[in-house]
Write a structure and sequence with these properties.
Elements: H1 2-17, H2 40-57, H3 67-85, H4 87-92, E1 94-95, E2 98-99, H5 100-127, H6 130-159, H7 163-173, H8 184-187, H9 199-214, H10 216-219, H11 228-241, H12 245-261, H13 263-268, H14 270-290, H15 299-305, H16 315-334, H17 345-349, H18 361-367, H19 382-415, H20 419-438, H21 448-462
Antiparallel strand pairs: 1-2
Helix pairs in contact: 1-2, 1-6, 2-5, 3-5, 3-19, 5-21, 6-7, 9-11, 9-12, 9-20, 11-14, 12-20, 16-19, 19-20, 19-21, 20-21
Length: about 475
Amino acid sequence: MVKQREVHSFFIGLSVISIPFIGSISGIASLGWLGRELSFYPLVIGMVIWLMNIVIKGESIKIPQNKSFVYLLSFLVIILLSGCINCSEIFYVSFNGQSGLYIFGMQFASMLCYTAISVYVYNWLRMGDLQTNLKLFYKWLLISFFIAGLYSVFELGKILGNETLTNIVVSIDEMFRPQVIDTDTFINYGRIRSVASEASYFGMYSGIIFPWIISLPFLVEYRHKFFIPMVYTYFIILNLLSISRTAYFIFAIQLVLYFILFRKEIKEISAYIINSSVLLLVCLLILNSFFDSKFNFDIVEVFRSILGGDGGMFSSSNDARFGSQYAALSVFFNNPIIGVGFGLAGIYIVDFYPSWSLYNVEIKLWTEGVVTQSGLPSTHGLYSRLMAETGMIGLFVWLLYIFSMAASLLKRINDEYSPRKKIILKGFFISLVGAFMFAFNIDAFRLMAYWIIFSYIWYLIDCNDTIDDN
């Protein structure tokens, strides 16, 4: 059992460490966007080994004993129901030579795979004790940030025009990025994206690790506390320089939540917080003077653009995003109860784009039949996608699943006496909020961060182990 756990620890750890590589590797082309998720591969290998052990040795599968898992299974049933009710249309429609039945089948199989991955991670967690599991998770997350942060040191040099650092970044990118990276577009990509494929994906990664970076003063040994302000100051600077609405929006919401949930802990180290804030302020002043000519951004403009109120760098993105979501909602209003079938919204939305969005470059690619990114047209939001594909029933059950985990975590937080375990529970709650907000930026379930976080939350809800507060 110990050796078996060590094997799975390797694969799961490798996946957690790989989380920042969102959509950025070449991968297996036939898997589409999922193939570009580096964290998917170690998880699926580990899961296959685990399933083989179950079959060969006759081991039992531990099923999460909480309401949220029941809601997830209910969501899978609704996906299947959406296919059955729309079967006549699914057999008829096609996209880029792929039948609707094939698209639905692959999407449903993907959801089964993701669910199985979460159950696999949950079973691995049940092999060990709570304290060890949490230490490993925290260590892996910090390693992932070390990799992302180290890459961004060179990336900053590239943006500032240093030729040597630019060449280093180009050489590193040639190892994993699928696109040609020695183009003017790459060289002039004037925002931080780290090892993710774009800046908004780095913002999504930040949404997972936010509470764990900001909580460093509460979770590491005192002798390391001198370095902590530098770590989370660097983390904040990278988010600012991403100039990403996703990063800013998630960061702002999580920061407010953090101050609410951690107000007692913050009060206990108020002197340390004040000193750290001084360092952060100094760094931001230096940032403003040193990087101002290279990073042309206005924080207020970035937030204002979320509501579509800009005419600058985000206008094209807004037209594509709002136009696609408008089209998805139009599909929903035509099929409000159970949708058009899971995975099929992209086939229908091309007929519902509003006229004001038709001149957008991305939308023109879809309406003119030019296929990009090896997939269906995007709805640019998971919730608008679920409304179009599974109707109000599917959206309701998925939200019920997310909110049930959040409610269970809050109950655990209120009932918990251990200060350190309470901090851990609060951290997972804030990470869950980050994952919830991913869905306003991306319309896919393929991010392994989702399913790893889900596994840990199931485990924390079901587990009554204690941890050492020293």
